[in-house]
Amino acid sequence: MSGYFLASTHKKGYLKTTCTQPTDTFTSCQSLSAGKMTRQFGTALSWLKGRTAGIFCCHLLLVVSCTSLYLRYLESLIPADELPVAREGELRRSVNLDDTLDFTARKWVETRTSWEAPIIWEGMFDPDLYDQKHIQNQSSVALTVFAVGRYFAYLKTFLTSAERHFMLGLKVTYYVFTDQPEKIPPVNLGPLRSLKVVLVKKYSRWHDDSMMRMKAISDTIESEIRHRCNYVFCFHVDQQFKGRFGSEALGDSVALLHAGFFKTPKEGCTYDRNPKSTAFMTNGDYYYNAAVFGGLWENVQTLADYCFLDIMEDKLNEVEAQWHDESHLNKYFWLHKPSRLLSPKYW
């Protein structure tokens, strides 16, 4: 089997450009006119004002985010009987089915981590058993996907393939984050499936679109998902489902092993090794792919908040992690071990 996912064709790397500027030759410093010096001073002053405004906005956003997280903490102290209660069975936890996993099914690959978390491969699980139990327990899944800018073109293929292969038999709500809500393509949704559109800002760089999705995910979990679904899965849009992506993937905290680094020694994995970045780490347990991650809604929200605050701290320090949100995701999963790992077959 070729895999559950057809991976994106995008390669890691940066597009480098060379900029050449003409060199002015002066016989003396005095040959600069007063007008030109004034213009240069004005340009420098404008740049300084812009940079100061940017730093102020980052500080402001960081303060607002920290305040929001603190208010969430205070809310968690309210007795449960004073909070709104979802309908019976809607937010039940899944039954632990890992005792039924066959860890010897793939003897030539690792099937369990050093902290006893399963690594899910085809052949290790009974799909009918997992589906039956999750259907019985009314497990519900929110799928978040960002279709912003040029990545909007991948949306229809992604959603159409998800309807064929993603969590069939379970209640699924697609949360499409986009800057083009009026262009959402028509998709024939099956029973128990629904789609919601969330308007987001388009940033000038795709790196920022990718990094800032963490805040949008957390905010939407807080405002809506937590009241409707007990699991959340987050995907990149430039990929499509090629086979079953089912209930065996559900867990408390779920990470995907990166196919490109699955057999790479840890020293060769692209962790962020810049000590100035909050994503800094010398080596990790595995290298995880930011194209897919998930878990119980509260755990995904915690992950998203962690990554967002670290991204904002880096921005204040004029640092950017090597692989953006993926670097921060790897740092989080190194400090907070995932309870379930998906093999590269899921990508």
From TrEMBL:
Keywords: Glycosyltransferase, Manganese, Membrane, Metal-binding, Signal-anchor, Transferase, Transmembrane, Transmembrane helix. GO terms for biological process: carbohydrate metabolic process. UDP-N-acetyl-alpha-D-galactosamine binds at residues 146-148, 151. Transmembrane segments: none annotated. Mn(2+) binds at residue 238. The active site is at 326 (nucleophile). Its main location: membrane. Belongs to the glycosyltransferase 6 family. This is Alpha 1,3-galactosyltransferase 2. It comes from Perca fluviatilis (European perch). The lineage of its organism: Eukaryota, Metazoa, Chordata, Craniata, Vertebrata.
